[in-house]
Structure formats: C-alpha cells, structure tokens
Amino acid sequence: MFTINSRGRLGNQMGQYATLYALAKMNGRPAFILPQTHDFLAPLFRISLPVLHNTTINQIPWNNYKLNDWMEEQYRHIPGQYVRLTDSPGSWTFYHHLRQEILREFTLHDHLREEAQRLLRGLMVNGSHPSTFVGVHVRRGDYVYLMPKVWRGVVADRGYLQQALAWFRTHHSSPLFVVTSNDMAWCRVNIDASRGDVVFAGNGLEGSPGRDFALLMQCNHTIMTIGTFGFWAGYLTGGQTIYLANYTLPKSALRKFFKPKAAFLPEWIGIPADLSPLFKH
Fold first, then answer.
1. Are 136 and 42 part of one and the same domain?
2. What is the pLDDT of residue 207?
3. pTM greater than the 0.90 cutoff
C-alpha cells in the first residue's frame, strides 16, 4: 500500500497526487490518498484514488520514504509493505509516461468547465471573438519576499511579461490574454492592456483557486511565472507554454532540490529572468 503526505496548496497537492499515482503503479502497489489531499482535489477534479480514513492511517505502521523532486531509478523498487512517500514531489519526470491517465485524473467537473467556457465565450479582442486564448498566471504573494531574501532569486517582473506577451502576439493572430494571479492589483499596473487584448479575469482568491484554475485550463496556451499552480495550468492545457527561466543565482540553496530540467517540459519556452535587482544595494 502506498500513500503520500499532504503538503501545500493546490499545485503542490496535484504534484503529490500524480507522483503517488505513478510510483504506486510502477511498484505494483495500490495507492490511497489522505483526506486532506481529497479535500483539495475532489471539489475540482474527477480523481479516482480511494481515500484513507484517519482512524486507518493511525493504525498502519508506515515506512516513510523521502523523495527528491525528480525521478530516480531506485524509485522503481521501493521496499516495504506500507509506504508513505514524503516531501513535496511534483516533477513531470515521475508521471509523464502516464500523461493521458494524469489528464483523465485531473479532468474538471462539468460545472467548473462550463462556467469557464461561458466566461471565455463572452470575451472580445477589439470587437471580435478571439480564436486563441492564452492563460497567464502571475505568482506573487509570499514569493515576493522569499525569492530575494531566502532563495537568492527573483519573481517575474514587468519586462518578463512584456516579452512573453510579445512572443504570442508574434506567433499567433490576435490572441487574447486571460490574466489570473494572487496579486491582481500588481498585474493591472504592470501588464499593458492598452491594445485591448488583455483581460484581468482572475479573482485572486488563494483559498478558493478553482475558478482561476478552470479558466487557465480552458485556454489554448499558457504563460506561467514560477510555482506549481502555473506549471499544472501549462501541463494540463497542453499548448505552448512560456516560463520564467534561470530565476536564481547559481549558488542559491534552491538549486539543491530544484532541477529546472525536471521542472519544465523540454518543449516549453524559457525566457531568462532579469537577476540585476539582486545585485543592487
């Protein structure tokens, strides 16, 4: 029997679920999720893994098995009868070979999908209905402090978003950018909407992220910044994805447990971050 700890918010929970799903299958073991994982994911998605009740959890002699956030050969042969996977894994390297199954697990409930599609159908670019929707997720919040102070890195700035929007404007005819964020006020100031092709659609509510996530999933392509919420939007949407690349200094402690090659799909497009603010005193 395999389970996995429940850590973090929506994007982390999705990564843990997908990792558990894949590793349990790889090791020929049944997989069960914790109630907290179910509470995060079941309101949004048609997940299929059964839930362990708290009384059962406490009676099982678990063998904790710590994972790095990238697939390793040893994870194909995890010992023990009752295994609780630990830490916060979410890398595509664990589950990408099961992509179609993961997409099925993270199928939105009909009412969420229909609400998002209804909102998108009502949007216009300069008076006409767009044929291409680009979901934009801007992760700020605690990262604004943590990245420079703890991880010697940066979050996405105005310049990165200008470059990302320009790329899609060059490669697609009249795209519409659908912006979501946990800091919509910052986005309204720093994303130029003067062309009429940017809509600030997110509600920014971290406690109930389902609406924003459903919106991103119904778009054709994705601009993410950093964080697992944006990753999953890009992974499930399946179109072209632009991400913020090289956003920490080489000696950042983040590099010890974060491998960019395991975090972003090879076909995704990375735009290097501007690290110059880290050198200003």
1. no
2. 67
3. yes
